[in-house]
Amino acid sequence: GAVVSQHPSWVICKSGTSVKIECRSLDFQATTMFWYRQFPKQSLMLMATSNEGSKATYEQGVEKDKFLINHASLTLSTLTVTSAHPEDSSFYICSAKRAGDGYEQYFGPGTRLTVT
Amino acid sequence: AQSVAQPEDQVNVAEGNPLTVKCTYSVSGNPYLFWYVQYPNRGLQFLLKYITGDNLVKGSYGFEAEFNKSQTSFHLKKPSALVSDSALYFCAVRDHLGSQGNLIFGKGTKLSVKP
Prior knowledge:
The complex is a heterodimer of chains A (116) and B (115).
Chain A: E1 4-7, E2 10-13, E3 19-25, E4 30-38, E5 44-51, E6 57-58, E7 67-73, E8 76-81, E9 90-98, E10 106-107, E11 111-115
Parallel strand pairs in A: 2-11
Antiparallel strand pairs in A: 1-3, 3-8, 4-5, 4-9, 5-6, 7-8, 9-10, 9-11
Chain B: E1 3-5, E2 10-14, E3 19-21, E4 24-26, E5 33-38, E6 44-50, E7 56-58, E8 64-68, E9 73-78, E10 87-94, E11 103-105, E12 109-114
Parallel strand pairs in B: 2-12
Antiparallel strand pairs in B: 1-4, 3-9, 5-6, 5-10, 7-8, 8-9, 10-11, 10-12
């Protein structure tokens, strides 16, 4: 149990366009989901935390108007990269916390975004 | 500030030999510590965690980690390395200062196991 999926697994888009990444908890309800960004050969950097039905909390330095996060249900959170630029190219990983499970996060497989 | 340090960028081990991947932490309060493994172009897979109790924690794939409070360390170990263990390993600590329980990650250590 506790499986998290992401879609798409990889995406290539043109500069100036927007792209949406989905994060789903397949077999549990996720009260909280996290979005991370990982640059090549670097660690994961937390971008934002989202709770179902409320606005996301963004980390310092993350543009909330550029990285739109929606957590519309207990099994789905989406990250939309708006007006993408080549510097937004990265590996985006989501994780989810199961309701009642205070300590553990379950990670998705990640989405590779390339902006040309 | 809360932080996690993984002092080695890379660890090289011969197959069959024991391996250690080092991690030290700095947190306020009791640490909740985690190890994850990442294979190329994949998400993170949970290996093990320490919340409370026995200092020696056993996890997936034969890995274990020892919590040492006096040295603020949580080193990952395996008695006999496999080539398939080659991957990127992340140590993480729960951010007690945050309200949502997010994780603070170390920079990662690349483990290379040679036949």
